[in-house]
Amino acid sequence: MNLASFQPTENTKMPPTTPPLDFDHQKGDEIPTKHKEAIRQLHWFAKVPIGQLGSRYKLGNSSIRRVLGYDAPERARPTRKGRPQKLSDAQVDEIIEYCSNSWEQRILDYDALVLELKLDCIASTLQKRLHQRGYFRCVACQKPYLTAAQVIGRLLWAIAHIFWTKEWLKVLWSDEVTFLVGGRTVK
Q1: Per the CB 3.0–4.6 Å rule, which of 35, 110, 155, 179 could disulfide with 123?
Q2: How far apart (Å, rounded) are the C-alpha atoms in residues 125 and 83?
Q3: Mean pLDDT confidence for 2-14
Q4: Is 94 a residue whose pLDDT tops 90?
């Protein structure tokens, strides 16, 4: 596009305002929108040449030309960054709810979930989105069964203490904390 022949249209015209005077641009920083619009207005309405704008705002001619070439003073979608996500937050919520419904659904691997729910993504995408929410898949550790001796020992202990009333008030319950009592370790 030839900037010399460019004339602002109805979409690019904004009512003239007083240009801001507090411009202190550091190289590499983004030019604030109010200053971009001031540059556009000074050039298109006040007919200030690009060279004078460059010296006034301490910008190069290419930076001034880039600002003048914008269709609008701001980006059209300021919150949009990168590619769109394959799974929206609402879809992830539905997947979490689906997995929470039953044990069979909870133990499905990522590939099976993608197939069963007919998702438009691959298993690693589903895994990444669930990890972002704090949900992880892992194989549960197999706990050993109680032996016959352990079962009998627990039953005898329970029968021996079934009629305790006041004695239970002296017991301090803990969650598997090791204490040192009288020189010996007690669990």
Answers
A1: 110
A2: 13
A3: 50
A4: yes
